[in-house]
Amino acid sequence: MRHYTILLLLTLMILQASLSHSEAEAEALFSAAPRDEDGRFTNPSGDLTHGTFSVRFPFIMRRMGTYFRSAEDAPSRVLNDGKFLRENARHSKPTVTWIGHATLLVQVEHVTFLTDPTWSNRPSPVPVFGPKRFVEPGLAFDDLPEIDFVLISHNHYDHLDLPTLNSLAKRNTETVFFVPLGNGDLLRGEGITNVQELDWGQTATFKGTTIHCLPSQHWSKRSLTDDRKALWSSWAVTGDERRFYFAGDTGYFPGFEEIGRKLGPFDLAAVPIGAYEPRAMMRESHMNPEEAVRAARDLRAKKALGIHFGTFDLSDEPLAEPPLRFRSAAGDTAFGAVGAWVLRVGETREF
Ligand code: ZN
Ligand code: ZN
Q1: What is residue 312's DSSP assignment?
Q2: Is the pLDDT of residue 222 over 70?
């Protein structure tokens, strides 16, 4: 009789364990993006302030002077004719190439994708007045390998560049454009139809890889009245061989720890390290290099690649400062300077 009782208890325990497992699976890993009463997206911590008028106005005046800022300290560029990347396209060497700013070409798990691709010279609604490009793209557009998909983090002009997206869609009608919720119409309005819109926590699959739309702490705006109508996000691409994370544009926030815990460790995390001055204005929406290192550690990244600096004149910090502070901050931690990657524009590295 005792044996039957023990057997019954064991069966019940096993049943309970499998039940809680399937319940956990059914529950989404991340909450959907929060919205205001008027339906506009916001951050879990609420709306960002972007500093007072007394900080913002002088900043905008200084930005007007970007025509005269020297490109002397811009990142160096290496010649990349794209031959290796075109030949590697269907093979398994995981590589990352810095095209400039937040644009990366990644080849992993037999797929090739771009993050926030821009080949334009001035990311702006009025290109004549926009911030100028200091360094030519690291790869000529025509030298690109076939692109399977594109990840877009948000609609700011330095990340969502319609001329480039148009060229990519024309070049290969099968290229899929993954965007956060609310960005699809902008692309479809341009005749780009192969678009998938995802909310935070939603995933898509592409040839054996899983594409995760994930939180970031930022905002969106392309016109005078469309503030936060379209969502912003970070992204992860995971498969059997590698786990890759792309932070987009973001301030430092607790989401990194959550993403690291649920989806980490990552083999490579691309984190923005520029556009952080003046702090009073940027603190909530852009990380400084020290915060980027902290984010990479929270994400449980084995290596962190510093991006979003030195390409466009967007903010007050000296051009050469972000990578120096990024390496130095990483060197001061258990993460170590060797784990903090800074590529030359056009450089390809295996990860
Ligand atoms: Zn942005
Ligand atoms: Zn940006």
Answers
A1: B
A2: yes
Give residue 62 CA to ligand 1 midpoint distance, Å. 19
238's CB contacts (< 8 A; 6+ apart) are 209, 210, 212, 244, 263
Q: Please, which contacts does 117-121 make with residues 24 or more away whose CB atoms are closer than 8 Å?
A: 117/150, 117/161, 117/164, 117/165, 117/168, 118/158, 118/159, 118/161, 118/164, 119/161, 119/163, 119/164, 119/167, 120/161, 120/163, 120/164
Ligand 1 centroid to 103 CA: how many Å?
13
Our CA dihedral for 165, 171, 173, 175, rounded to 10 degrees, sits at -60
Rounded distance between C-alpha atoms, residue 137 and residue 119, angstroms: 6
Indicate if the pLDDT at residue 244 is higher than 80.
yes
Q: In the CATH scheme, what is the homologous superfamily, with its name and number, of domain 78-350?
A: Ribonuclease Z/Hydroxyacylglutathione hydrolase-like (3.60.15.10)
The residue ranges of every structural domain in the chain are: 78-350
CA of 23 to the centre of ligand 2 (A): 38
CA 155 / ligand 1 centre spacing (Å): 7
Q: What is the pLDDT of residues 50-70, one digit of tens each?
A: 888 888 887 877 777 666 678
DSSP tally for the chain: helices H, then strands E:
9, 14
48 alpha carbon, closest ligand: 1
Q: What is the rounded CA–CA span in Å between residue 328 and residue 190?
A: 43
pLDDT exceeds cutoff 80 at 309? yes
Give dist(CA 195, CA 185) in Å, integer. 9
Residues with CB under 5 A from ligand 2 (ion): 158, 249
Ligand 2 centre distance from Cα of residue 116 (Å): 10
Tell whether the model's pLDDT for residue 306 goes beyond 70. Answer: yes
Least confident of 103-107, 132-136, 266-270, 336-340: 336-340
- Residue 189 C-alpha to ligand 1 middle, in angstroms? 21
Distance 265 CA to ligand 1 centre (A): 26
